[in-house]
Specification:
Elements lengths: L1 H42 L5 H49 L3 H6 L2 H19 L1 H23 L2 H7 L3 H38 L1 H6 L3 H53 L5 H42 L19 E9 L6 E10 L4 E6 L5 H8 L10 E3 L2 E2 L5 H7 E4 L10 H5 L10 H7 L3 H5 L18 H14 L4 E5 L7 H14 L4 E5 L3 H4 L4 E6 L2 E6 L1 H7 L2 H17 L1
Parallel strand pairs: 3-8, 3-9, 6-7, 7-8
Antiparallel strand pairs: 1-2, 1-4, 4-5, 9-10
Helix pairs in contact: 1-2, 1-5, 1-10, 2-4, 4-10, 5-6, 5-10, 7-9, 7-10, 9-10, 14-16, 19-20
Bound molecules: adenosine-5'-triphosphate.
Keywords: ATP-binding, Cell membrane, Membrane, Nucleotide-binding, Transmembrane, Transmembrane helix, Transport
Membrane topology: Multi-pass membrane protein
Protein name: ATP-binding cassette, subfamily B
């Protein structure tokens, strides 16, 4: 489908390229004949220099034609293949950027990267070099054999090309092994790049665990695998090339033996003999190309399957038509049950809650009790059953997810920043806000820290945000969420890297700065969220209890227990 659609639009590029390729092939066949003619002409007694000059000039013109023809077939065919690769990469990216969270939960980044790089390159080879090999194999072989037969002698042609099909068989046979070894090289390359990437990103962990030797060993194993797989590939190339050259020379020997005899017997001229020799040399490439062609198509088809697999992935969240929706942010959750599409385990069990516009709500509870899952469902990252979540009295399934996410800023636990300046990171939702970055940073209590950096807001955030401390990174992501100007802000345990006091201060500050906005805070520190309008306590996917801080303390349940423990821990730390 991918290829058919492309060919429907760009077939003319291939048609033009093939015309140039055929012209080049034809000229290649004419040149040996001209050389043969010159030799025969010199051998006659009546030759004159002017005529010789014209003959030589005609060869120069043919050679110029070759140069021009070669430029254009490359331009059209290789250009079309590269364009196909470029379009495929873009089609894949446009497709996956539309996919929902479930796709990213299932697919590994490394695997996707390979499909974007080496698989599309493989496809490019099938759409470019393979097309050329096909034309060459078909036309060059047929045209050269016909030329040899008609210009020289059919019997000599038949005898001289006898060893050549063996080259095709050999290159087909070796092609399979090369394909296998090449795949091994690719796999070991991706393993090596994986371990290099991981070691560099996790260098601080390696150093902190004083684990250099283990890492060195792992790295060495991987680079040794890479080296070994390459050597195996080189070995097979090393065997195949001399064999092909040997068979090519054998064919030329046949020409010397049978052709030489015919020259002595006066059946053909010396020019015919040289012509045949050159033609036989020209047949070696199409024979080799045949093996490469089969190989290339096999690899291309495998890659095409891997790419179509990505393009066949569909959204699991079914979206209605995107209509205007007056989003106020009144959430009602009714008897909500939820399982992730990738698992059979029930994560949320009969959850009921209500969040009114302008309120500050807290989700607290043990690790893995389902707090983040509920927050993600409120932003429609996964599909839920009908009649389980309502926003402003409308079933969430009837509201387009993009409208919800335009109005809700979700700050997740892992604070990913892009490798751009801090200013650009803060203004990520709208670059026009770049000049106001300081304002949002102040609201997120990170302005002072950023001003103290040598390049201030213009500091480029390094790989995975390493130029900033954990707490600074977390607050920059909050500033980024505030710049989005949404009606609801969800802070998903995104302040764990700052101390309790700072977390409390930031949340208090946020509340004052964002009056009228709904704030949902997920936190393990109860002191930081005790001023919430309502606190929901999660336990094993259920809401165990809810209420204000004081109400929950009175209930003397899980919350009261957790709070008392945290207070004791705090006191102990102070002492
Ligand atoms: N994408 C996913 N696919 C399958 N299971 C998942 C996925 N994400 C989370 N889970 C599982 O769902 C359960 C609830 O996870 P969730 O992140 O909602 O907990 P949490 O209360 O926010 O925990 P924490 O306080 O550690 O953030 C966990 O057991 C987790 O393993």
């Amino acid at each position: 489908m991918l290829i058919t659609n492309y060919l429907k639009k760009y077939w003319w590029r291939y048609a033009l390229g093939i015309v140039f390729l055929l012209v080049v092939d034809y000229i290649q066949i004419i040149i040996p004949r001209r050389i043969g003619n010159i030799i025969d002409y010199i051998e006659t007694d009546s030759w004159n220099l002017d005529h010789l000059k014209i003959l030589v000039l005609s060869i120069i013109m043919l050679a110029t034609g070759l140069v021009i023809g070669r430029f254009f077939w490359r331009f059209f065919i290789i250009g079309a293949a590269r364009l196909f690769q470029y379009k495929t990469i873009n089609t894949m990216f446009t497709h996956i950027i539309e996919l929902d969270q479930n796709f990213y939960d299932k697919w590994r980044t490394g695997d996707l990267m390979t499909r974007f790089t080496s698989d599309t390159r493989q496809l490019e080879r099938m759409m470019g070099p393979a097309v050329i090999m096909m034309v060459d194999t078909l036309f060059m072989t047929v045209m050269t054999v016909i030329a040899m037969g008609t210009f020289v002698d059919w019997e000599l042609t038949f005898l001289s090309i006898l060893p050549l099909p063996i080259i095709a068989i050999i290159s087909l046979f070796f092609g399979r092994i090369i394909h296998k070894r090449f795949t091994e090289v690719q796999e070991s390359t991706s393993d090596l790049s994986n371990i290099t990437e991981e070691s560099l990103s996790g260098m601080d962990v390696i150093k902190l665990y004083a684990n250099k030797d283990t890492m060195k060993k792992l790295f060495n194993n991987s680079s040794k695998d890479y080296y070994d797989s390459y050597i195996k590939l080189i070995r097979i190339w090393g065997l195949m090339h001399p064999l092909v050259t040997f068979l090519g020379s054998l064919a030329q020997l046949f020409v010397f033996f049978f052709g030489g005899k015919m020259v002595i017997n006066g059946e053909i001229t010396l020019g015919d003999f040289i012509m045949t020799n050159q033609y036989v040399g020209m047949l070696i490439w199409p024979m080799m190309a045949f093996g490469f062609l089969v190989n290339n198509i096999q690899r291309g088809r495998a890659s095409l399957k891997r790419i179509t697999n990505v393009l066949d992935q569909e959204r699991t969240v079914i979206e209605p038509e995107k209509k205007n929706f007056d989003f106020k942010g009144h959430f009602v959750v009714k008897n909500l049950n939820f399982k992730y599409p990738t698992s059979e385990r029930k994560i949320l069990k009969n959850v009921n809650l209500e969040i009114k516009p302008g309120e500050m709500i807290a989700f607290v509870g043990k690790i893995g009790s389902g707090k983040s899952t509920l927050a993600k469902l409120l932003t429609k990252l996964y599909q839920v059953e009908d009649n389980s979540i309502f926003i402003d009295n409308e079933d969430i399934n009837n509201i387009h997810g993009e409208i919800i996410r335009e109005n809700v800023s979700y700050v997740p636990q892992d604070n990913f920043l892009f490798s751009m300046s801090i200013r650009e990171n803060i203004a990520f939702s709208n670059i026009d806000l770049a000049l106001k970055a300081e304002e949002y940073a102040e609201k997120a209590s990170v302005d002072k820290d950023l001003k103290n950096l040598e390049k201030g807001y213009e500091t480029i955030v390094g790989e995975r945000g390493v130029t900033l401390s954990g707490g600074q990174r977390q607050r920059v992501t909050i500033a980024r969420a505030l710049a989005k100007k949404s009606k609801v802000i969800i802070l998903d345990d995104c302040l764990s890297a700052v101390d309790t006091e700072t977390e409390e201060k930031i949340i208090k500050n946020l509340r004052e700065e964002t009056i009228g906005k709904t704030i949902i805070v997920i936190s393990h520190r109860l002191k930081a969220v005790k001023n919430s309008n309502k606190i929901y306590v999660f336990e094993d996917g259920k809401i165990y209890e809810s209420g204000t801080h004081n109400e929950l303390l009175e209930k003397d349940g899980i919350y009261a227990d957790m709070y008392q423990k945290q207070m004791i821990e705090e006191k102990l730390e102070e002492e």
